[in-house]
Amino acid sequence: MLIKNQYQILNTLGEGGFGTAYLAEDSHMPSRRQCVVKELKPISDNQEDYPLIQERFQREAAILEQLGENHPQIPRLYSYFSEDQKFYLVQEWIEGTTLETLASQPNPPNEAMMRSLLTSLLQVLDYVHGKGIIHRDIKPENIILRQVTGEPVLIDFGAVRETMGTVTAGNSPMAPASSIVIGTPGYMSSEQATGRPVPASELYSLALTAV
């Protein structure tokens, strides 16, 4: 499968309620570098919702670009576009092992390693929160340890998924009426579970991830 006549799909990385993530090759680059293509589909079929979702998608993509360009522990954004009522993000492929996979191995991370990972990830969160951004879905699955350096990389920011869940008021297509809760049960704080995450909510999720 070829997306936008450029991204050659190699395999599927994951599927969820908002779309599918693929590992792909960029056929327009001399190196044919690997990348992650996220195909996102809004939950609303209302055509009146589309302009607002498009606007929010562009805004969130710009934030992802800024975060990835200025911090080595956040994937870089290579491209974004919309096609056939679907939205696409093309991001850096982080080669490595998720913390979830690492924890399930015969020799899981010990306390010293977890202290080191926590220190590193707290610095990432300090940077993200300093930009006024909340990740919304911190969990072992969304932390990848780079194969070369071993440093933890924070992936899969939840704001774009929240945008895909936008539903507008019927009498005002440009006014959001509701949006779904982003997060994973077992890692969410009580305020995040009610749709009101704050920076401190991320510390709760990170602590549970370490535990």
Short description:
This protein has a six-stranded antiparallel sheet with strand order 1-2-3-4-6-5, with helices on one face. Strands 7-8-9 form a three-stranded antiparallel sheet. It has six helices and eleven strands.
What is the subunit organization of this protein? single chain
Low-confidence stretches: none
Radius of gyration (CA) equals 18 Å
- What is the ordering of alpha helices and beta strands? EEEEHEEEHHEEHEEHH
Largest sheet: 6 strands, antiparallel
Calculate the terminal CA-CA distance, rounded to whole Å.
40 Å
**Residue share in β-strands:** 25-35%
Backbone structural class? alpha+beta
Helix content: 25-40%
Q: Give a count of the beta strands, DSSP E runs of length 2 or more.
A: 11
Strand order of the largest sheet: 1-2-3-4-6-5
Give the overall shape: globular
**Count of helical regions:** 6
Task: Let me know the average pLDDT.
Answer: 91
